[in-house]
Amino acid sequence: MAGRLYIPPLDLDRLLPGLAVDETPITGANLAPRRALSLIRLEAGRLRLARAFWGLTPPWLKVLDHAPHCARAESLESRAMFREAFAARRCLVPAGGVYVWKAQPRAKQPFLVTRTDRGPLLLAGLWCRFHTSLTEHADSLALITVPTNDLLAPLTDRLPAVIAADDAGRWLAPDTPAEERRALLTPAPGELLGAFPVSRRVNDPGNQDAACAHPIGPMLRLTSEQERR
User: Fold this and answer.
1) pLDDT-wise least confident of 25-29, 34-38, 40-44, 54-58
2) 22: closest CA among 42, 44, 51?
3) What pLDDT is stored for residue 228 in this prediction?
4) % of the chain with per-residue pLDDT over 90
5) Are 56 and 128 spatial neighbours (Cβ–Cβ below 8 Å)?
6) At 148, is the secondary structure helix, strand, or coil?
7) Alphabetically, which GO biological process terms does the record hold (predicted)?
8) Which pLDDT does position 138 carry in this prediction?
9) Strand extents, DSSP E, the chain
10) Cβ atoms of residues 97 and 110 within 8 Å
11) DSSP string spanning 80-113?
12) Does the pLDDT at position 129 exceed 50?
């Protein structure tokens, strides 16, 4: 799944020209669910950066611990928790990478999944709004996950869907047909993502130092021979 994110400072203006940034983007070396994240959504026809709690909390949810931080792409239209948000409230979460844990005989080894060029990722998400009063509200989000590609399957079975910057407007637009939205939720191309092992310091979400994201081994990535096949 996607239980931890690496979000360094990102050049969002270059990634999405025209993005309205009215507040400081949230960054962190080891960000866990149940805290705020920056998200990008369409407001009055313009891409805008905002903040939301990581854990989807629709107004009828009674137990905060039940707020899902991820939603499977295959069940977005069949589960009431996600159906309306998938139709009308889609978002993007800018990130530098996603931590995953590979099962091993003695202990799980954490890996950081990133772009092979270490560029920024736009992760697909859903958001909702809960009005706490007539004038105040709280927003929340969940990331959308898809099956991993063959390269990363030994590390984890699912990862957040990655939306290309050129497809951001189409993903966020309220009038994008359902079939087009579904078509964007596919495993990332093999050449886009790689992964490298990182320190087990990342196991503790209290550790937020940059060392959490430093590689301690080579990057797993497609070789030129594999790309030609």
Assistant:
1) 54-58
2) 51
3) 47
4) 79
5) yes
6) coil
7) protein-DNA covalent cross-linking repair; proteolysis
8) 86
9) 5-7, 28-31, 36-43, 46-54, 70-72, 90-95, 97-102, 109-115, 121-131, 137-147, 158-160, 193-197
10) no
11) HHHHHHHHH-EEEEEESEEEEEE--SSSPEEEEE
12) yes
| Domain spans of the chain, in order of start | 5-96+120-148+158-188
Going by C-alpha positions, the residue among 198, 203, 201, 195 that lies closest to residue 216 is 198
What is the model's pLDDT at position 29? 97
5-96+120-148+158-188 architecture in CATH?
Alpha-Beta Complex (3.90)
Task: Please give the single-letter amino acid code of residue 146.
Answer: V
Residue found under tokens 């637009």: 173
Which pLDDT band holds residue 5 (cuts at 50, 70, 90)? Answer: very high
Are 185 and 160 in contact by the 8 Å Cβ rule? The answer is no
Q: Are strands 97-102 and 109-115 parallel, antiparallel or unpaired?
A: antiparallel
Q: How far is CA 40 from CA 8, 71, 169, in A?
A: 16, 18, 11
Cα–Cα dist 114/7, whole Å: 11
User: Is 60 exceeded by the pLDDT of residue 101?
Assistant: yes
Structural tokens at position 180? 């087009």
Q: Rounded to an integer, what distance in angstroms lies between the CA atom of residue 32 and that of residue 69?
A: 10
Residue 213 corresponds to which tokens in the numbers above?
């994201």
Residue corresponding to tokens 């087009």: 180
Model-level pTM? 0.93
